[in-house]
Structure formats: structure tokens, C-alpha cells
Amino acid sequence: xxxxxxxxxxxxxxxxxxxxxxxxxxxxxxxxxxxxxxxxxxxxxxxxxxxxxxxxxxxxxxxxxxxxxxxxxxxxxxxxxxxxxxxxxxxxxxxxxxxxxxxxxxxxxxxxxxxxxxxxxxxxxxxxxxxxxxxxxxxxxxxxxxxxxxxxxxxxxxxxxxxxxxxxxxxxxxxxxxxxx
Length: 181
Prior knowledge:
Layout: H1 9-18, H2 27-38, H3 84-93, H4 101-115, H5 117-120, H6 124-146
Helix pairs in contact: 3-6, 4-6
């Protein structure tokens, strides 16, 4: 392999075409050579068979850059956990509980576009479905407006309302200071 030959281009092509790396090796030796080459001549083993009885060391699973987040997985939303009067509306809309007004609005827009008579060509089934979706959206939107804001106490103001500022009569009065003379 360390010999150098100087050929013209035509003879280089002929030499390379006739050269066989596996010349003189048996089929078993060729197979062994190919297996070694797939792992770059490094030892390999089947996945999961090395280590402490198939266990993965916890330090190998640490996420120092917080790429996967530290929060536990979120529970899947379900319409079954919703108040009974909202379950049918949530099923019609294809949503789960708890629900935010942004999720409701986004899903309504998606369904309204898909089932609009201009888009469906006047299909009566789609038209009836859109009517059901409009009723469900109205019910859910009204219920969300009545619910307290998340993260506040149960006696908090409903969504969309703001506390009114205190009037002059309700503000605490500071005692007057005597002028320094």
C-alpha cells in the first residue's frame, strides 16, 4: 500500500477499475471487515445491554441548559372535567377543560372558516353544524366572561371587568403637618 506508481490518466483509470481491496479474502473475512468498518473499528454492542441491568444513570439525563424544561408534563384537557352544562358545547367545539378565551376564539375561527356556506358550497349539513358551533361558542364565551380571573381569589371580579379606582371620599386621609417656623 505504500508503493507509489506514476501513471497517465488512462492507466490510472484502468488500475483503479481493476484494484480490489478484498482480493484474496474469504467471504467470512470480507463480512468481518465490513462489520468493523460500520463502527469505524470501534467495539459496539446492542442498545440497552450495557450498564447496570438496563438502567440509565440519572446524571446522564440531566438537562443543564433546560432544553426540555423542568415542569412536569401537563395533563391532557378533557371535556369530562368541565361543568355539566358546558360539556356538550365543549364536545361540539372539540375543546377540553379548562379553557381560555384565546383557545375558544381560535377554535371558533377555525371551525367557522371550514364550515362557512361560502366555503362548503351551501351544504345543509355543514350549515347546521355551523349553527351548533355558533350556539356553543356563545354559551362558552358567556360562561368564560362570568368566571373569575385565573390566579385570583374566588371573590375576584369577573373577566373583562376592572376594579374601579377609589373615590376621594374612600381614600385614606393623611394628618396635616404643622409648618416649621
